[in-house]
Each structure stands twice: as structure tokens, then as C-alpha cells.
Amino acid sequence: MAAQRKLMRVLAGEAVAPPPIWLMRQAGRYLPEYRATRATANGFLDLCYTPELAVEVTMQPIRRFGFDAAILFSDILVIPDILDRGVHFVEGEGPRMTPLAVEDIGTLPRPSVDEILAPVFETLRRLRRELPEETTLLGFCGAPWTVATYMLAGRGTSDQAPARLFAMRHAAEFDQLLALIADLSADYLISQIDAGADAVQIFDSWAGVLDETSFDRFCVRPMARIVEKVRRARPGTRIIGFAKGAGALLEDYRQRTGVDCVGLDWTVPRKLARAIQADGAVQGNLDPLLMVAGGAALDAGIDRVLADLGEGPFIFNLGHGITPQADPDNVARLVQRVRAWGGA
Ligand code: 1CP
């Protein structure tokens, strides 16, 4: 059955009309039912580590909109959490943790992902039982560069200067950190596949702050390392790579990393998007703010993305996560319009 799911067919390189659709961050604060469940949890990480609650919030957007994929409810920062970095989420501000110093790198623990993240795998097993047969179940993790930016700064920043400076000053230790995160992330994804994920997405949300050489060293190579490790352990695993802001560097991203599908943020020009699609699946590209604006601007944006990318192997998605200000009615309108599309 898994191979026939619409989204899985696209990941195998098939063009499907209308394209399958899901949204990054589809479970989240723009949904009143999410806010209600969130209020019953003892903090954000409790929501991620309590299978009953994580299953509920993962299912909410599926029930409401009937997306073609559900994405495990968790966060990319569970990896720093199991590395004992003191991860916590400050209401209205975002994630915080103890900033990593150069002398900490050699002393980081080597946790067994399988044991320590057992509740996450239980969430996936329950989800596969609850989801409609035709719905793809996606697992995910953060890419090493993006996870490292949070570990080094201890929080989100606008330009990731702390991580970039660290990489300039301590190249050997930085490579060591990326390799550690890559290996843990590969183990994490392998266990997600074993627990029922059909495919996985790797989020490199901060790829866009790097020059070409650093992008190659910090994003492409660690991504290739994860892909290689996962495929060696679980041959045929389908992987989506999302390197936000990478622009022209996305041109040969599929070949250099080995991912099946290339995520496109909303700034990727259509000419480049189509060139990337010439040799395989792409996903994304709609400006997430259209989910706030709605109306004619939303319709025009949807139609443009479908006209440009709908004919090749394509997964409809936003160019980044949906924001808390998005209107759920606009999401319903989006799904309806994409499903009504009959091809160009
Ligand atoms: O209090 C809350 O409800 C917190 C909001 C929230 C949510 C709903 C956070 C904190 N994480 C999540 C869930 C989440 N995070 C998912 C769940 C599944 C889904 O998509 O529905 C996923 C895939 C993520 C991934 C994630 N977390 C990324 C990569 C994708 C992206 O948006 O770029 C990143 C960078 C994070 C870190 C993070 N976690 C939370 C916040 C607010 C942030 C960003 C912080 C920052 O940079 O300042």
C-alpha cells in the first residue's frame, strides 16, 4: 500500500495531477484545536514526548483538511535535548538552550536514540494505525547545520552569526559537531522508518546564510552523510531535502546530496525550479504569507505555482512553515483549489 500513496508516487518521480498537498508546520498555533491541546501539556517538549498528545495534534490538520501527508509532531531540537543542552521553549519567544562552548564538544554524550526517544517512535506507530490508508506519514529531523546554529547560539538568531563565527574560528571542532549531529540524526531517521514513517524530510532552514564554500561543507556534505547512512541501513528510503534560502546553490543539490525531492522556498525563481524538476520531484514554493492574506492574491499564487510546477513530479506545499497568523479558512480554500486543478 505505502508505494501507492500519492505522495510516495511523486517521490518516486511520477507526475500526479492534481498534486498531493501538505503544509510545513501544518499542526500549529494557527489552529484553535492545537492551542487547546497545547494548553493541556506541561510545556512544548511535553507535547512532543507524550504520544497521546503528539498523535492528537498530528491528526488535527488531517481531520480538518484531509492533507495527503501527516508529519510527525515533534521538533528539530529534540536532538540537542537528548544531548543534554537544557532545551526549553519560552512562551512567545521561542527555543532556548545553553550555548555550546568549544570545550564542550568533546564531552557531549552519545545517547542511544532508540531508547531515549522511545515516545516519539510510539507516536509514529500509533499514527500509522490511526491515519487513513491513503495518507503518507512523514518523519523528519533538522539538518546538522541548522541544528548546530541553535546549539551554538542557544537560541534562534536572524543571521546565525554565532555559528558562522564558530565555524571560522574552530573548523575542526565544528566538523566534529556536524558529524555527531549527522550520525545521531541518521539513527533517528532509521528508527522513524522502522516505527512506520513512509518517508522523511530533513529541514535545513538556515542554509541561506552561508557562502558557497560553507554551504558545501556545512549543508551538502552532512546531508549526503545522513542520506548515505539511512539508505545503507534501510535501502530505498525516500528523503526530501529542504535547504531554505539556498537559491542558485539548489541547482545540483539533488545530485550532490542524494535526496529524492528538493524543497523550494518561495524565493526560488520558476526557471530554476523547473530546471531542478527536470530530474526529479520538487516540493513547495507558495509564499506562506498568502495563508494570512487570502483572497485573490492567494488564488493567483496557487494558480501560478500549479502552472509552473504542476505538470512534473510535484508536491504542493508552502515555501516555509505556515505562520500562527494564518487563517484556517484560507488553508481550506487552498486545498480545495489544488484538488480542483485538472492539469495545465
Ligand atoms: O508553543 C508552541 O506551540 C511552539 C511552536 C512550535 C511548533 C508548533 C515549535 C517551536 N515547533 C513546532 C513543531 C514543529 N517544528 C514541527 C511539527 C510538525 C509540523 O510541521 O506540523 C516541525 C516539522 C518543526 C521543525 C522546526 N523546528 C524547524 C524547521 C522548520 C522551520 O520552520 O524552519 C525549526 C527551525 C524549528 C525550531 C523551532 N521550534 C519552535 C520554534 C518557534 C522554532 C523556530 C525558532 C527560531 O528560529 O527562532
Automatic annotation (TrEMBL):
Pathway named in the protein's UniProt entry: Porphyrin-containing compound metabolism; protoporphyrin-IX biosynthesis; coproporphyrinogen-III from 5-aminolevulinate: step 4/4
Record-annotated site: Transition state stabilizer: 75
Residue ranges annotated for the Uroporphyrinogen decarboxylase (URO-D) domain, each copy included: 20-29, 138-154
Amino acids binding substrate: 25-29, 75, 150, 205, 320
CDD domains: URO-D
One GO MF term attached to the UniProt entry: uroporphyrinogen decarboxylase activity
Role of this protein: Catalyzes the decarboxylation of four acetate groups of uroporphyrinogen-III to yield coproporphyrinogen-III.
Name the UniProt record assigns to this protein: Uroporphyrinogen decarboxylase
Species for this entry: Pseudohoeflea coraliihabitans
